[in-house]
Amino acid sequence: MKTQKLNTLTKNFLLVILITGLTFFVTSCASKVSFLNSSVVPAAKGTVKIKKGNNQNFNIQVEIEDLAEVERLQLSKEIYLVWMETEKGIFENLGQLSNKTGFMSKQHTVSFETSSPFKPVRIFISAENESNVRYPGSADILTTDKFYK
Questions:
Q1: What is the pTM of this model?
Q2: Which of 9, 55, 72, 140: CA 20 to 30 A from 16?
């Protein structure tokens, strides 16, 4: 009888630890969202990973493959910028999209990484002539759906 109670307590204890561990694992994982197909750069495909860090900032990683050079767009521009729409509907310029080995190297992949204290609901790419613009241009090159409702 005593052994059966001990086994039940041990099983319950292990079950609680397992549930707690799974909950932590699921909540600590990054959200991964794909960019939608684009009529401006139809060959481009990419993803955005968002993870809330220990400091309560949101870590944002963007990776895009087969993105046309910005000068080759129908309306030629100078640079690609990464933007974030916050949960309050504010647009934040996160920075310029570039590649360490030169834009569109042999891998045809560009990446971007930053963090923000604001909760993002959508990430998008625009083509601009300057990096210090406060609002995105009229056309999104690539965009995600809203991922946090």
A1: 0.74
A2: 55
